[in-house]
Design brief:
Length: 147
């Protein structure tokens, strides 16, 4: 399970005294524990992947905000944490791969208007879980449906 791998990697990082990795994995483990408390059960690998994706997205947003604010020290810190988190995410989809999956989802659902975007997203999101940014996918679906 992904959760077990994260815990094992955290112990390994502690032994190697890799402070950034330890801190990042502790925060990730805490987020996973909080999600488990909310659901009142242990998370599946897909749900753990969702937590990792959410944490990575937070780091990307922070990096953008810190860049705009001229805080290169915090950009470096967040970038290092993002690199740790990305090790647990599947490979990102290229623009061409994403466009192909969007076209397939539109074909499967028979969507032709922007009002049917929700159906397309519902069919598409399980296929791209953790491999593409939701806002990027949404924008692509909108453009393909003529919105």
């Amino acid at each position: 399970m992904l959760k077990d791998k994260i815990e094992a990697d955290m112990r390994e990082a502690m032994k190697a005294r890799e402070q950034v990795r330890v801190a990042t994995l502790r925060l990730l483990k805490s987020s996973i524990t909080n999600a488990e408390k909310e659901k009142i059960r242990e998370l599946s690998d897909d749900e753990v992947l969702d937590v990792v994706t959410r944490e990575a997205k937070r780091r990307r947003e922070s990096i953008d905000a810190f860049r705009q604010g001229g805080r290169t020290d915090l950009v470096d810190k967040e970038s290092a944490e993002l690199a740790v988190l990305e090790a647990y995410l599947p490979d990102r989809l290229s623009d061409d791969e994403l466009a192909t999956l969007v076209d397939q989802a539109i074909g499967e659902t028979g969507a032709t208007t922007p009002k049917q975007m929700g159906e397309v997203m519902k069919a598409l999101m399980p296929k791209i879980r953790g491999r593409a940014d939701g806002s990027q996918v949404s924008a692509l679906v909108k453009s393909k449906l003529g919105a």
